[in-house]
Structure prediction request, 84 residues.
Amino acid sequence: MTTIKAGAVRFKLYPEDHLPRHAHGLYAGIEVVVQLGAERTVTLASRNDAIQPKDAKRSDVRKILNAAATHFDALVDAWEKMHQ
Prediction:
C-alpha cells in the first residue's frame, strides 16, 4: 500500500486493487473512492460504496476531490508503478 498526504487529506492506493485507476481518499472520518481518469479527470467512482459513510458532508467529499485534482500526477504515478 502507498499513502500520499495532501494536507489534511490522505490517499491510499493498494497494489492488489482493480481497474479503473482510483485512490481511496480519507478525511474527517470519511472515505471516498476517487476515479483517476484520462485527461486529468477526477470523479467520484461509480460504485455503491464510493462514499463511506453515506451521510458524509458534501463539503468534505468536495475537499477530497479537490485534493485529488491537485495531486493528480502523484496519484497516477503511484498507481502506475504498482500496477505495471
Observations:
- The chain has a mean pLDDT of 96.
- Helices lie at 58-70, 72-82.
- The chain has one domain: 2-82.
